[in-house]
Amino acid sequence: QSVLTQPPSASGTPGQRVTISCSGSSSNIGSYTVNWYQQLPGTAPKLLIYNINQRPSGVPDRFSGSKSGTSASLAISGLQSEDEADYYCAAWDDSLYVWVFGGGTKLTVL
Amino acid sequence: EVQLVESGGGLVQPGGSLRLSCAASGFNFDDSAMHWVRQAPGKGLEWVSGISWNSGSIDYTDSVKGRFTMSRDNAKNSLYLQMSSLRPEDTAFYYCAKDKGSSARRTGPFDIWGQGTVVTVSS
Fold this sequence. Notes:
The structure holds two protein chains of two kinds.
Chain A: E1 9-12, E2 18-23, E3 35-39, E4 46-49, E5 63-68, E6 71-76, E7 85-93, E8 98-101, E9 105-109
Parallel strand pairs in A: 1-9
Antiparallel strand pairs in A: 2-6, 3-4, 3-7, 5-6, 7-8, 7-9
Chain B: E1 3-7, E2 10-12, E3 18-25, E4 34-39, E5 45-51, E6 58-60, E7 68-73, E8 78-83, E9 92-99, E10 110-113, E11 117-121
Parallel strand pairs in B: 2-11
Antiparallel strand pairs in B: 1-3, 3-8, 4-5, 4-9, 5-6, 7-8, 9-10, 9-11
């Protein structure tokens, strides 16, 4: 059972907009920034969004992040087939004194 | 090119030991906190351990405390994870990851990841 809760799956058709939620608590998302990672099949994770809504160089602006209270969301607009991957949220937890990840959301592009 | 390359994984019997290494290049290693993150087969990501730029603070997830020791050698641009008393549930891909900051706590993110090394604990 992960400290951060994500839906196990999400799907959309090309061109659609999809959102992936990440629910936490006051000791993690409620107090600290949220980072998102993308893991394409058979590859290492890659930083996708950091500090809630910042994109590293090279990440398309189709990807965006937001946070409200103890929850965060990742939005992907203009969905493309190459976006099919697992997505993880992460945050520091000040009660557990560890980094916590969500369980991951498998995105399928139909 | 910024790169992290893990090594040292393999098959080990329960109760055994293994030392993972991570060679860093292409960035100022001694300015960056570092982490180990693992992924069991078919499962999600789990943070294992983090170390600040100067080894002044080292944190572990509860399940590895007392069994795993994380260290770094800034002169060699290298990161290590000494694993002992290994259990079948430690079986996973182990990734080293660079922190964008110098502290391993609170902000991150993990902006560079290695390709991982596989650890299998089985008799």
